[in-house]
TrEMBL record:
Residues 1-24 form the signal peptide. It comes from Stieleria marina. This is Leucine Rich repeats (2 copies). InterPro entries: LRR_dom_sf. GO terms for biological process: SCF-dependent proteasomal ubiquitin-dependent protein catabolic process. One of its GO terms (cellular component) is SCF ubiquitin ligase complex. SUPFAM superfamilies: RNI-like. The keyword Glycosyltransferase does not apply. Keywords: Signal.
Length: 241
């Protein structure tokens, strides 16, 4: 099964274009360092931002250790649609800088303990399409803020403070097509809640509390859903490869 998602983007001339993301089987983030991203050889985050500004690029990706103060330069890069920070620590304070990116669609922050307050700030980024916060520090209450994001299609999140109630919060984000929960103790009832999402195509659960009874229910009631359990296809997934 191939899922085709159309994503509205704005090119450097300021006109609207349509990017088509074809997802065959597994859900993946867009490739790292594609054409149009800031130069990986830059020596600092500020260099990356300046390169993006000078070349009218729409993507910044870094594995350099950065913190909230490094993000202040983002006020000078209004064309950024993708921001990926894989090292260092960004906090709720840094999210205040990120939310000022008027075109942001894809955000990945690793090792960044974004709390419920930070999730409320994330909810102000109405253009956001892909949110990846694998090391957040939010609760189910914080996730509720994301239900106000009209374009959110992909959510990948982990937090030691998320409990089974997270299922209800996720199920309220009706626009979601792909959900990946990391270390969240979703149980059988929570699985049913998430499966009720009207646009859901892909579900990844790592270290959940779903039983074999829950999985049996899922494949009986949502046979077309693409499922990974602990990074592997469930053996009942008809779309495994």
């Amino acid at each position: 099964m191939t899922i085709v998602t159309c994503l509205r983007v704005r090119n450097v001339a300021g006109t609207l274009a349509v990017a088509v993301l074809a997802i065959a089987g597994c859900q993946h983030e867009p490739n790292s360092n594609p054409s149009g991203s800031a130069a990986a050889a830059a020596t600092s985050f500020a260099d990356l931002a300046r390169a993006a500004l000078a070349d009218r690029q729409d993507r910044i990706e870094t594995d350099q250790i950065i913190d909230d103060t490094d993000l202040e330069i983002l006020s000078q890069t209004p064309l950024i649609q993708t921001l990926i920070c894989d090292a260092g620590t960004i906090t709720d304070q840094g999210m205040e800088q990120i939310k000022r990116l008027p075109e942001l669609q894809h955000l990945r922050l690793r090792h960044s303990p974004i709390t419920d307050d930070g999730m409320q700030t994330v909810a102000a980024i109405k253009t956001l399409w892909f949110l990846n916060l694998p090391h957040s520090d939010c609760t189910a209450k914080g996730l509720q803020h994301l239900a106000t994001l009209p374009e959110l299609r992909n959510l990948r999140i982990g937090s030691k403070r998320l409990n089974a109630d997270a299922a209800t919060s996720v199920a309220a984000i009706k626009s979601l097509r792909s959900v990946h929960l990391i270390g969240v103790p979703i149980d059988d009832e929570g699985l049913k809640e998430i499966a009720s999402l009207p646009e859901l195509h892909s579900l990844y659960l790592d270290d959940s509390d779903v039983t074999e009874t829950g999985w049996q229910w899922l494949f009986e009631h949502a046979p077309s859903l693409h499922v990974h359990v602990d990074q592997l296809h469930h053996d009942r997934d008809p779309h495994q490869h």
